[in-house]
Design a protein that fits this description.
This protein is α/β, with parallel strands linked by helices. 33% of the residues lie in helices and 24% in strands. It folds into three domains: 4-104, PDZ domain (Pdz3 Domain), CATH 2.30.42.10; 117-261 and 338-427, Alpha/Beta hydrolase fold, catalytic domain (Rossmann fold, 3-Layer(aba) Sandwich); 263-337, no CATH class. It starts with a strand and ends with a helix.
């Protein structure tokens, strides 16, 4: 199977800044075979730079701006070094002919929909210049409540200009249709955002600081009710959100598909659950769990090098145990050090704990533990919901097997309805 890489590469402001506006990133729009050299074009995205200059499927990319390119990564880097509006020159091989294609580098389109306003803003921290994407109702007679999306552990953009089916985008748009402002924040080097170090090099506390500064700025917006700020912590965002709330007050936190115990406990719960769901023999699962505990303890508690771990557990990187392939060691060490129970005990706002019954990434145990923790510290402040036929990505699938097989899904309006009901109750409290 050919591996592909879709190259997007790809204003209102949150505050009144003294810095230059954050530019939109370039939109090359090519699907490339990452294994071929010269690089094979597998597809061209409509309305992109690639389409405008005349690139075609099956073309072979030979040079970019008169510099030879041998890999898809070299093409990506070459486009990253350019600015929107600059002329791009691409030399290609097409049916035994060499052609030179020229055109202006286009900007990635912005998200748009007729029934709401989408604002591409920005927030500046000490080291970063971050893109914010806000959706708000077209008309409002009063200041509005806000839901801020706090993303998971992986580095990814929350700018979905080219994918209107994305569940995060659908969550935000549907919330705005119910009268809420929503805010997404791209982390450094994701989407349009820039920073001293990319998301992949940021620590957990770096990200907490970034979200904290963004929320401070959000509260200054003229149309925002600063007393009605809610965080939607998705996956590991459910750990980041209460850390942010310790630094900047919010009214409520949604913890969806998250960690409710120590990170090491979460790994044990989730890895055993996944092994069982995939039908592994129980004897083999027992041996696997010994490796899970051993590898995780060496990496997180003892801070052993990957080389040392590999000497004791030679195949650990092939067993869903290569924790440092997700994020750098500093991030994982800070995550391991988080005192989850203490963190949630300190949060005095309202909490909605949501777990989809078809979520095999996060475990029910963590969500029940989280509910118990909050109930003990703040009776009546936590709501627990299990959502039928809903997976980790806020998608709806009829069966758990469909989720395990990564089958196509639809946005879970069941989860959305629980969320809106809880938000309304919090607003009236």
């Amino acid at each position: 199977m050919k591996k592909t890489f879709l190259l997007w590469l790809g204003l209102s402001l949150i505050a009144l800044p003294a810095w230059a506006q954050l530019p939109r990133r370039a939109f090359f729009g090519v699907q490339m075979n990452t294994k071929s050299s010269p690089v094979e074009v597998l597809g061209v995205v409509p309305q992109s730079t690639a389409e405008a200059v005349g690139l075609q499927k099956d073309d072979r990319l030979l040079s970019l701006n008169q510099k030879k390119v041998n890999t898809a990564q070299e093409v990506i880097q070459g486009i990253k070094e350019m600015k929107v509006g600059e002329e791009v020159r691409i030399e290609v091989s097409r049916k035994d002919k060499t052609l030179t294609l020229k055109g202006k580098l286009k900007a990635l389109p912005e998200e748009k929909t007729a029934d709401m306003e989408t604002i591409y803003g920005e927030v500046k921290t000490a080291d970063n210049h971050l893109r914010t994407i806000i959706t708000k109702p077209l008309e409002a007679s009063q200041k509005l409540p806000v839901v801020v999306y706090v993303g998971g552990i992986s580095c990814y953009s929350v700018d979905f200009a080219m994918d209107s089916t994305d569940k995060i985008l659908q969550l935000c748009r549907n919330l705005t249709r119910k009268g809420y402002v929503t805010v997404r924040i791209d982390r450094p080097a994701m989407g349009d955002s820039k920073g001293a170090k990319p998301c992949s090099d940021c620590t957990l506390l770096d990200e907490v600081a970034q979200y904290t500064e963004a929320i401070k700025a959000i509260k200054q917006l003229a149309y925002v009710n600063a007393e009605q700020i809610f965080l939607f912590g998705h996956s590991m965002g459910g750990t980041i959100a209460p850390l942010v709330a310790q630094r900047e007050k919010v009214k409520g936190i949604v913890a969806y598909g998250t960690v409710g115990t120590s990170f090491l406990e979460y790994l044990i719960h989730s890895r055993r659950n996944q092994a069982e769901l995939y039908g592994e023999p129980f004897g083999e699962i027992d041996d696997y769990m010994r490796r899970v505990i051993g590898v995780s303890t060496m990496l997180l508690e003892q801070k052993a090098s990957p080389e040392a771990v590999e000497m004791k557990y030679p195949n650990y990187k092939n067993e869903n145990l290569d924790l440092f392939s997700i994020r750098k060691p500093a991030y994982m060490y800070e995550l391991h050090d988080v005192k989850v129970g203490e963190m949630w005990e300190k949060f005095e706002g309202y909490s909605l704990i949501m777990w989809g019954k078809h979520d095999y990434v996060a475990h029910q145990i963590d969500h029940l533990a989280l509910k118990k923790t909050i109930d003990k510290a703040h009776a009546g402040k936590a709501t627990y919901v299990e959502v039928e036929k809903t997976n980790h990505g806020i998608g709806r699938q009829e069966t758990l097997q469909e989720a395990l097989d990564n089958k196509p899904d639809q946005f879970s309006f069941e989860a959305f309805e629980h969320l809106v009901k809880w938000l309304k109750q919090c607003q009236n409290s």
